[in-house]
Amino acid sequence: MNLARLISISVFALFFSAASFGTACPVADAAEKSDRTAIRALLKQNADVNAPQADGMTALHWAAYRNDLEIAKALVAAKANVTATNRFGVPPLSLAAQTGNAALVELLLQHGADPNTTLRGGETVLMTAARTGKPDAVSALLKSGANVNAKERRGQTALMWAAAEGNTAVVELLIKAGADSQAALPDSGFTPLSFAAREGRSETVRALLKAGADVNAAMEPQKPSGKGPAKGTSALILAVENGHFELALLLLEAGADPNDQRSGYAPLHVLSWVRKPNRGEDDGAPPPLGSGNLSSAQFAKKLVEHGADVNLRLKTGKGAPGLYNKQGATPFMMAAGTADIAYLRLLIELGADPSLRHVANCTLLIAA
C-alpha cells in the first residue's frame, strides 16, 4: 500500500471519528448511566437533550426507565421531547408506566404525552400500567383520558392484564372507570374472570364477581384457533384444571355449577387427571400444583357437598371403541383409568356406583 493511500485512509478515519463525535448523544449516555452530575453539566452547556442513541433511546427514555423523577423533570424543563420513540416504537410514557411511578407518569402527561399511546402490537400504556399493578399510575392515565376498554391486536384489555396478574386494586379501579368485565378474546373466549381463575387469583375473582361477572359463563370463542382450553370451559373448570382448589371452592360458594360439563368434563372427572397422589398429596403434603392448601381429595368432598353428582355420566366422547370413548363415563371409571386407588376409595365413600358402564359398555376392570 503506498503512502498516499495510507494517508487518505487515515484522514478518512479521523474525519469519521470526528463526525461520530459530533453526532454523539452525551445527555442520553449520561442518563443511561444515571449520572446526574454529568446531565446537569450538559444541560448548562445547552447540549442537545433530544439526541438519541443508536437504538433511538433518548435521555428522557432512560430517566423513565431508571425511574428517575428528578432527572426527568430537568429534561422536560430543557424541552425534552416527551413523545419521542425508540427503534421499537416505545415512548418514555410506556417505560414510566412499566415502573409504575405515578408522579413520573403525571409529569409526562402534563407535558404532552398521549395517554392512549400504543406499542406496535397494540399494547396501550394503560395495559402496561395495569400489568404493573400500581393504582396511582393507572388513575393518572384514566384521568387524562386513557381508553379503559382499548384492545390490543389479540383483543386483550387492560382489565384482562390486571386480572391475570392478580392486581385487585387496579381491577377495581378499572371497573369503576367503566371497564367491560365480560369482554372476551375472539380466538379463545378468555374473559377477565377466566384469566383470574386460571392463575389462581382469589381476591381478583371476588372483585370481578362483585362487579357482576357471571360465575357460570363459558368460554365461547368466536374465531377458534384450536389452542387453549376447550369451548365451554368455565372459571370453575379452569380453577380445577390448574389445581386452585380453594379458588374453585370460592366459585362453588358463589353459585358455580358443580356438574358443569360444557367443556366435555365435569369437575369430578377433571380431578382424575389433575390429582398427583404419587407426589404425596394424599399423605399430607401440600397440593403439587396450583394455589392454596386445600387438597384435591378435600375439594372432591366439597364438590359433593355442593351438589356434584358422583355418578354423573359424560354427555360427549370420541367416536372410538372401548375405553377411549369417554361418553357415559363416570368419575369412578376415569379414576380407574388412571389407577388412582385413593380417589377410587374416596368416590366409593361419596356414593359412586362401580357397576356403571359407559356407552361402549366398557367395565371398570377394562378401564383399570
Question: Main attributes?
Answer:
single chain, 368 residues, mainly alpha, 20 helices, 47% helix, elongated, disordered N terminus
Topology:
Elements: H1 3-22, H2 26-32, H3 36-44, H4 59-65, H5 69-77, H6 92-99, H7 102-110, H8 125-132, H9 135-143, H10 158-165, H11 168-176, H12 192-199, H13 202-210, H14 235-241, H15 245-253, H16 267-274, H17 296-305, H18 331-337, H19 341-349, H20 364-367
Helix pairs in contact: 2-3, 2-4, 4-5, 4-6, 5-7, 6-7, 6-8, 7-9, 8-9, 8-10, 10-11, 10-12, 11-13, 12-13, 12-14, 14-15, 14-16, 15-17, 16-18, 18-19
Please give a structural write-up.
- The protein is mainly α and 368 residues long.
- 47% of the residues lie in helices and 0% in strands.
- It contains 20 helices and no strands.
- The protein is elongated and about 90 Å long.
Summarize the amount of helix as a percent range: 40-55%
- The proportion of strand residues reads under 5%
Distance between the termini: 85 Å
Helix and strand content put the structural class at mainly alpha
Radius of gyration: 29 Å
- Shape category: elongated
The total beta strand count reads 0
Would you summarize the structure shown here?
It contains 20 helices and no strands.
